[in-house]
Specification:
By secondary structure, the protein is mostly beta strands. Helix content is 3%, strand content 37%. The protein has a domain of 290 residues: Neuraminidase (6 Propeller). A hairpin with a 5-residue loop joins strand 22 and strand 23.
Length: 432
């Protein structure tokens, strides 16, 4: 299957934008344009499809796993505002009714004694932020949401907390061990957090660990603004997904985006459909890819997951986001070259994604330790996206190679949180 059949589009922001020429395999003799020797874009695409395969290095995390090397990127630069945050692992922002921006992140060992959530505030539309506040809430952030009534809902490793005073005080609902079947640990993962359905019900992802790199995934619900949660429904991801994020679409449908292991590729015969699928690795993040599924009955029943078109290790942590004008974004950590955070868009509620015109929100991570881009659309219509990136402070001349034979970077030291405020272009993604 040609990548173009998934519909893709790219437009750079915050620095660059990339448009790729994607090739499919074409049989038979290729026709040329007349005698002037000028070749068309379609003929160039045919030649790329017939090119000799580019030799990619071996290894679980080599940056080439699902990259098509027979293409170039056309770059357009657009203005944005980017801020590096302190004590804010994998940040997620929300905006209060008075315009104040709240960013939730976390600190953890070995940089800090325990894993704790943090908050920091901006009163100038994300140009500057105050000092981080260390909360008495354990674990990594599993989504932050400001409800229509101003209540903040924060998922984290210790449960789901709510605040009615802008984050000054919190009350926590802890996961009851019997909320879903099984005995393994319960996790939200680094999901996008709660969504609010048309009747006011809140819904969020919850998974139970059942094996080595295996989870059973559910949605749970709250009908009292996040004070209590229950009413679980199993979702159709087998044992492949521990990070699933949801969005309500203009039609009322709910889309779920999964980060699923290589088991989904091989179980469903997707080796030739998911880029990099033939070499996907079982039992490791190195086999992860993004899939999507839908519900038309408030999350009670779901379609079977299908590929988004993004490749293995490309969308490690992928998040759907509906703009106020109805366009649907899919933001993801790009763990292929160039390492960073990207966005693709859809005009038809995700039935097709324009993969050839991604927006590069960040492209400057030293390695594949990057991503988890969770977002909010601010009152002025701009997007504020939080993500993390691998940075290196090197006092000497010789730059290290952080992706090879080095320890995993640690949040708060080499891995740092950032937010970028950007504007989605008016005519993006281009319509076919």
């Amino acid at each position: 299957m040609r990548r173009r059949e998934f519909n893709s589009t790219v437009l750079g922001l915050t620095g660059s934008v990339a448009v790729g020429l994607t090739g499919g395999v074409t049989q038979g003799k290729q026709e040329r344009t007349p005698t002037d020797g000028v070749i068309s874009t379609e003929q160039m695409r045919q030649e790329a499809g017939q090119a000799v395969p580019y030799p990619k290095p071996a290894g679980r995390r080599n940056g080439f796993d699902s990259v098509n090397m027979h293409e170039v990127l056309v770059v357009e630069r657009n203005p944005a505002v980017r801020v590096k945050l302190e004590k804010a692992g994998k940040p997620h922002a929300a905006q209060l009714q008075d315009g104040t921006i709240v960013v939730a992140g976390f600190v953890e060992p070995p940089i800090y004694e325990t894993s704790r959530c943090t908050l920091q505030y901006s009163h100038d539309n994300a140009r500057t932020f105050g000092e981080p506040v260390l909360l008495d809430l354990p674990g990594r952030v599993g989504g932050l949401r400001c409800l229509k009534n101003g209540t903040l809902i924060l998922g984290h490793g210790g449960g789901i907390s709510r605040s009615t005073d802008g984050g000054k005080t919190w009350k926590t609902w802890e996961f009851p061990d019997d909320i879903v079947p099984g005995e393994g640990g319960l996790v939200l993962g680094e999901c996008q957090g709660a969504i609010q359905l048309s009747d006011g019900t809140l819904m969020i992802h919850l998974a139970r660990k059942v094996g080595v790199y295996e989870w059973e995934a559910f949605v749970i619900r709250s009908t009292d603004d996040g004070k209590t949660w229950g009413d679980p429904t199993r979702v159709p991801t087998e044992k492949d997904s521990d990070e699933i994020s949801y969005e309500v679409l203009p039609s009322g449908r709910i889309i779920g985006i999964t980060r699923s292991s290589a088991a989904m590729i091989f179980r469903n015969g997707l080796q030739d459909v998911v880029p990099g699928g033939k070499d996907a690795i079982l039992g490791s993040e190195a086999g992860d890819a993004a899939y999507q599924f839908y519900s038309t009955d408030q999350g009670r029943t779901w379609s079977q997951p299908v590929p988004t078109g993004l490749g293995v290790l490309q969308a490690a942590g992928a998040y759907p986001f509906r703009l106020r004008d109805g366009r649907l974004l899919l933001l993801y950590g790009n763990r292929q070259f160039p390492y960073g955070t990207q966005v693709v868009g859809s005009h038809d509620e995700g039935r097709t994604w324009n993969l050839d015109h991604p927006i590069l929100l960040s492209w400057h991570s030293w390695s594949a330790y990057c991503g988890h881009p969770r977002s909010v659309q601010l009152h002025d219509g701009t997007m504020l996206t939080g993500y993390y990136t691998h940075r290196i402070d090197n006092p000497g001349d010789g730059p290290p190679d952080p992706a090879r034979n080095t320890p995993e970077p640690k949040h708060g030291r080499q891995m740092t949180g950032e937010v970028v405020r950007w504007r989605v272009p008016d005519n993006w993604p281009p319509k076919a």
